[in-house]
Amino acid sequence: MELRKTETYSVQQMILEKKSKKKVNVEKIIPKLLFLMAAISVFTTIGIILTLIFETFIFFDRVSIVEFFTESKWLPFASVPSFGIMPLIVGTLKITLIAAVVAVPVGLATAIFLSEYASEKTRRIIKPILEVLAGIPTIVYGFFALTFVTPVLRDLFPSLDMFNALSPGIVVGIMIMPMVASLSEDALVSVPKSIREGAYALGATKLETTIKVVLPAAVSGIVASVVLGLSRAIGETMIVSVAGGSTPSMDMDVTSSIQTMTAYIVQVSSGDAGYGTTIYYSIYAVGMTLFVFTLVMNLLAQFISRRFREEY
Q1: What are all long-range contacts of 147-153, with beta carbons under 8 Å and residues at least 24 apart?
Q2: Does domain 74-307 have CATH number 1.10.3720.10?
Q3: Is 56 within 8 Å of 285 (Cβ atoms)?
Q4: Distance of CA 181 to CAs 115, 172, 176, 223, Å?
Q5: How far, in Å, are 185, 199, 204 from residue 194 at the CA level?
Q6: For the residues 276-304, what does the mean pLDDT come to?
């Protein structure tokens, strides 16, 4: 009897020890696996940055960096090429400003409606529509701008060129509007109900509470959402490539053809320049400039979010 108890105890002990060893092994492996996943993303980012830097240095060995940032003409395919990036920057900023005019008021109004006025049933209808807009491929937006928005605008403005800044700018604004609306709504919803109730107790109306109490309390999240949306607009590629044209210009006319930094990269990458040429390396210099733009925008969004964050 005692032998059987000893045998039973020994078997149970062996099972427990085996499980314990497996648990210890898993506990040791999982942190290393998670670190490996994090390291992959870090090394990928470093690899992209180093590639941009090295190829950009090759370009600046051939073209003066002063010319690159001060010249007002971008004519890389001319017999006497000129590599002044300012026309591409102006084209990119034109698209971004038009997109901001469309996305910020509409997105913010949508966020206010969803967070403060909409019923649960209405919210269940509108939110999926915003998610569908956010999930549409940008090439589809590009052809929508070219084949629908541009003809409609040309009926209103006959002088509008087939390729112009206005049409893709509007469609880019439509594309980033769900991002602005969703992030702004999250910021508005995070404002405690007690703040709203305090405003109501003082006699404020729902509109006064929204405008004078809720919006100021959520301003850090709203501004961060706008900045992130505009950062997305700066880096947009297919919409401006399809509907914007390929004419670098320094003027502020939105009715004529333009070219943005991303559109130029697409143009050269599609085979317009041979490998190892100055034009080929110019896409890395333009890409590096674009990277700096988006990096600054993202850092600005983080700074605003931290600097003006409300603690409740």
Answers
A1: 149/243, 150/243
A2: yes
A3: yes
A4: 10, 14, 9, 11
A5: 18, 9, 14
A6: 85
Q: What residues contact residue 47 under an 8 Å CB cut-off, 6+ apart?
A: none
pLDDT, tens only, 216-259 = 888 888 888 888 888 888 888 888 888 888 888 888 888 888 88
Tokens of 78: 């001319």
Q: What is the pLDDT of residue 309?
A: 63
DSSP the chain: -HHHHHHHHHHHHHHHHHHHHHHHHHHHHHHHHHHHHHHHHHHHHHHHHHHHHHHHHHHHHHS-HHHHHH-S-EETTSSS-EE--HHHHHHHHHHHHHHHHHHHHHHHHHHHIIIII--HHHHHHHHHHHHHHHHS-HHHHHHHIIIIIHHHHHHH-TT--SS-SHHHHHHHHHHHHHHHHHHHHHHHHTS-HHHHHHHHHTT--HHHHIIIIIHHHTHHHHHHHHHHHHHHHHT--HHHHHHS-S----S--SSS----HHHHHHHIIIIIS-TTSHHHHHHHHHHHHHHHHHHHHHHHHHHHHHHTPPP-
pLDDT of amino acid 5: 47
Q: What is the pLDDT of residue 217?
A: 84
Region 91-118 average pLDDT: 90
Q: Which two tokens stand for residue 60?
A: 């600046």
Residues 243/75, Cβ–Cβ less than 8 Å: no
How confident is the model over 52-83, as pLDDT tens digits?
888 889 888 888 888 888 888 888 887 788 88
Residue owning tokens 């950009």: 56
Going by C-beta distance under 8 Å and a sequence separation of 6 or more, which residues neighbour residue 273? 76, 279, 280
Amino acid, single-letter form, for residue 82: S
Joined together, the tokens standing for residue 102 give 């469309």
Using only C-alpha atoms, the chain has a radius of gyration, in whole angstroms, of 27
Cα 151 vs. chain centroid, distance in angstroms? 28
